[in-house]
């Protein structure tokens, strides 16, 4: 076969293979864009577990009409312009890949208006075929609609699960979001019925406030909230804060382990290990702790460009962070450990 460059749509569909696994990944990418645009309220409307429709509306900055075609082009982003920017990136997005990928495997439309624009605009893309920018009334902010996900990629469509399963994945991601950004109001509807609502808390526009007990309770339930210890410790330019469950409240799985690094929900083996170690003498074998932890550090000490879907990060000084997390939690659990020993001795 002769060597030929791939057509753009196919390039985007290949990228979509990495970024867009299921409806929940679309919700994640679109809501992250809304947050990066400074939204204080995000409305999420879903149909059939997001497979038929995902509509995300935000009250963020909006996009200038003449930049709409760029927003949906591959490797076009307003968030970084140089390697130096990448190394200190503080936004959730930076790859300029999500919109073109999503638009190549769905019926996609993006409507938007900047505060200073006379009227709104819309751009529609059908399975990667890009239309013209047209005028369309829209309040300040952006609405993205994604219909019939994977309609043109039968191999992917086949892997979609039942409506309830896909909805479950979306809800899990929304819980992470609700924990990470208590300052943002979230409204969710499914098949035309309002299903969840989180009120925005304090902070003021765009300023992430600390997670309140109310939102913790609304998100993870009363059992969790009743059995937690507060943690807040800073040293060596690192800060770890949040809640960890008392050892008596433990889980059969790792389902209530939430870790955010600079506001981004991530999985990290080293930190998970540090937490496990801290609990090792107060938890039975095979049981797992529950926690909501926020680690904050200079963005230059963490590489977020590791994974296309950004589920993982790489720390420049991983060992130091491991030990910091271990020591902070070991200390926080000291009271419960005394309890265990006293109990055992009695
Ligand atoms: P990235 O988020 O990595 O920059 P995306 O493909 O997700 O890449 O988005 C491309 C660009 O489109 C963003 O850099 C941003 O400028 C613009 N954009 C996307 N969604 C929104 C939104 N909801 N509000 C304002 N601008 C947006
Ligand atoms: Mg993005």
Automatic annotation (TrEMBL):
Signal peptide: none annotated. Residues 216-334 form the DNA mismatch repair protein S5 domain. One of its GO terms (molecular function) is ATP binding. GO terms for biological process: mismatch repair. The keyword Cell inner membrane does not apply. It comes from the Bacteria. Keywords: DNA damage, DNA repair, Endonuclease, Hydrolase, Nuclease. GO terms for cellular component: mismatch repair complex. This protein is involved in the repair of mismatches in DNA. It is required for dam-dependent methyl-directed DNA mismatch repair. May act as a 'molecular matchmaker', a protein that promotes the formation of a stable complex between two or more DNA-binding proteins in an ATP-dependent manner without itself being part of a final effector complex. Belongs to the DNA mismatch repair MutL/HexB family. This is DNA mismatch repair protein MutL. It comes from Marilutibacter spongiae. The lineage of its organism: Bacteria, Pseudomonadati, Pseudomonadota, Gammaproteobacteria, Lysobacterales. The chain holds residues 1 to 346 of 613 of the full protein.
């Amino acid at each position: 076969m002769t060597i030929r460059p791939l057509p753009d749509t196919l390039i985007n569909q290949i990228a979509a293979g990495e970024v867009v696994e299921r409806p929940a990944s679309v919700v994640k990418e679109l809501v992250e864009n809304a947050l990066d645009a400074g939204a204080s309220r995000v409305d999420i409307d879903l149909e059939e577990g997001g497979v038929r429709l995902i509509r995300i509306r935000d009250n963020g900055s909006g996009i200038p009409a003449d930049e709409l075609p760029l927003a949906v082009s591959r490797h076009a982003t307003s968030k970084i312009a140089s390697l130096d920017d990448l190394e200190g990136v503080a936004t959730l997005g930076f790859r300029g890949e999500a919109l073109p990928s999503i638009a190549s495997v769905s019926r996609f439309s993006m409507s938007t208006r900047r505060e200073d624009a006379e009227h709104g605009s819309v751009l529609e893309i059908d399975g990667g075929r890009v239309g013209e920018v047209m005028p369309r009334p829209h309040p300040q902010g952006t609405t993205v609609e994604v219909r019939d996900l994977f309609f043109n990629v039968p191999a992917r469509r086949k892997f979609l699960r039942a409506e309830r399963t896909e909805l479950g994945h979306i809800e899990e991601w929304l819980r992470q979001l609700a924990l990470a950004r208590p300052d943002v109001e979230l409204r969710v509807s499914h098949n035309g019925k309002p299903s969840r609502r989180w009120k925005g808390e304090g902070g003021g526009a765009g300023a992430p406030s600390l997670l309140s007990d109310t939102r913790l309770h609304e998100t993870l339930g009363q059992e969790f909230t009743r059995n937690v210890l507060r943690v807040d410790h800073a040293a060596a330019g690192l800060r770890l804060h949040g809640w960890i469950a008392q050892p008596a409240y433990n889980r059969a799985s790792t389902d209530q382990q939430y870790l955010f690094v600079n506001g981004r929900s991530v999985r990290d083996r080293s930190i998970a290990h540090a937490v496990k170690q801290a609990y090792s003498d107060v938890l039975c074998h095979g049981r797992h702790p529950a926690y909501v932890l926020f680690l904050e550090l200079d963005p230059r000490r963490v590489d977020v460009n590791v994974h296309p879907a950004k589920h993982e990060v790489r720390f420049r000084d991983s060992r130091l962070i491991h030990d910091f997390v271990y020591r902070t939690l070991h200390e926080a659990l000291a009271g419960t450990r005394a309890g265990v020993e006293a109990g055992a001795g009695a």
